[in-house]
Inverse folding.
């Protein structure tokens, strides 16, 4: 085919280029998400979770404000429409999601955390019937059964290697599902900028409050040794630590932009399929940075969870809203997909 004919085909079907762009953007965004989580795991030996929350949020605020004002000058949404109480409740669910995930990050491999967190679409399926009044159907229930069977295979409850902390990423997936349901049911009219502002503000408030409580209580002994990342105080920082905080702030802004643009470029059900590439990237960073190699049961469980999530996504009619993960990350219409820019 000549170059002229290829150009003609692209002009005749501009949607094809948009689909490719959407796939590239979502893969790039989840790659950045996996890198962010790997860096937080790496930093967990030197800084507390709340220290990272506060400093990252403060570093990200100027970029979020600049992007919001720039969008407003171009006719897009800005921060003039302040977040509603539902947006703040959604942000609280996302803060709980991050706390549950990162509380386990010092002791669990990235691949296990990623697979357990990706039960989020299954919880969305479970909550859609009682909360949104949606019909789940046989395929949806099959996805739920397959996914939670995958969790059992991967975590092996009752076995000698089982640790209760392994359930925290599953709890994180549940809080993600609550945030997704809130986004769909109550936050349709909120701009992506307002939701991003609420999330960053909630992370900052949670970090400040937890830091204050820990400074007053000063936990120590076995309790502190059991969860230093969650219960430790602020640590002195050098130039490499400040550089890491700035890089994490840049990553969270880039992730938000990439996710929003990806879900605007193509149908959510298609883009959400490539969202699962996070599992591959998480396994790669676990191997490259921490020498963590998933064993056979972990790989089998990851495959079952990914298959169940895709089944839950595909049970929707083409073009219908589909679950999508991390700041994380929510499901809904194309308008809702932009709500993931956080």
């Amino acid at each position: 085919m000549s170059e002229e004919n290829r150009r003609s085909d692209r002009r005749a079907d501009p949607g094809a280029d948009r689909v490719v762009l959407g796939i590239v953007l979502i893969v790039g965004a989840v790659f950045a998400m996996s890198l962010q989580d790997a860096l937080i795991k790496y930093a967990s030996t030197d800084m507390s979770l709340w220290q990272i929350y506060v400093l990252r949020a403060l570093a990200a605020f100027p970029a979020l404000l600049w992007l919001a004002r720039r969008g407003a000058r171009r006719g897009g949404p800005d921060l003039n429409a302040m977040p509603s109480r539902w947006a703040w409740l959604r942000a609280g669910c996302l803060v709980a999601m991050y706390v549950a995930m990162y509380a386990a990050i010092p002791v669990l491999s990235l691949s296990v955390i990623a697979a357990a967190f990706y039960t989020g679409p299954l919880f969305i399926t479970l909550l859609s019937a009682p909360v949104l009044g949606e019909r789940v159907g046989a395929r949806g229930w099959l996805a739920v059964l397959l996914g939670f069977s995958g969790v059992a295979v991967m975590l092996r409850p009752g076995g000698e290697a089982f640790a209760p902390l392994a359930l925290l990423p599953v709890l994180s997936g549940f809080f993600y599902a609550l945030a997704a349901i809130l986004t769909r049911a109550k936050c349709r009219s909120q701009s992506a900028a307002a939701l991003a502002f609420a999330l960053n503000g909630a992370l900052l408030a949670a970090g400040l409050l937890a830091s204050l409580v820990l400074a007053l209580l000063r936990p120590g002994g076995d309790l502190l040794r059991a969860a230093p990342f969650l219960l430790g105080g602020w640590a002195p920082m050098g130039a490499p630590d400040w550089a890491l905080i700035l890089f994490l702030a840049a990553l969270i802004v880039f992730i938000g932009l990439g996710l929003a643009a990806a879900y605007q470029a193509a149908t959510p059900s298609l883009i959400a399929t490539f969202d699962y590439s996070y599992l591959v990237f998480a396994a790669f960073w676990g191997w490259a940075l921490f020498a963590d190699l998933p064993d056979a049961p972990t790989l089998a469980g990851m495959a079952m969870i990914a298959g169940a999530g895709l089944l839950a996504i595909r049970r929707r009619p083409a073009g219908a809203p589909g679950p999508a993960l991390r700041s994380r990350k929510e499901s809904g219409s194309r308008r809702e997909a932009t709500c993931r820019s956080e």
